[in-house]
Amino acid sequence: MRVYSSLWNADNWDTRGGLVNIDWTAAPFVAYYRRFRATACKWNGPVSIRQCGIPSKGNWWTSNVYKQLTMSQQGQLKWVRDNHMIYNYRTDFNRFKGQMAPECSKPQY
C-alpha cells in the first residue's frame, strides 16, 4: 500500500475566495508523514466495499470508540477549526447555489 498526497495552488477558491494568498516565498513546501501505519479494507471489486462497514475486529474503524467524539475531543476539534481553518468546502453554500456540495451528503458505504 502507498499513500500519495499533493500540494496545489488553491488561491482562487480554497482561501476565502482569494482573500488569503499563499506565501510563495516559503517554497519549496515539504510534507511528510511521521509514524504513519496504513490499515485498510481489502478491495476486491465494487461489492467488497460493503464489507468494510461491517463491524468486526478486522474493521477496527467500525468499533464504538470511533463512532462519536467525546466531549473533550469535540472541544479540541472546535478549537482547531476556530483557530486554524480558513475555508470549509462543506459549508460553502454560495459555491453550490445555496446547497451543500453533493458528495458531502452521500452515505459512507
From TrEMBL:
Residues 56-104 form the Xyloglucan endo-transglycosylase C-terminal domain. Gene3D superfamilies: 2.60.120.200. Transmembrane segments: none annotated. InterPro entries: Beta-glucanase/XTH, ConA-like_dom_sf, XET_C. It holds the Pfam family XET_C. This is Probable xyloglucan endotransglucosylase/hydrolase protein 26. The lineage of its organism: Eukaryota, Viridiplantae, Streptophyta, Embryophyta, Tracheophyta.
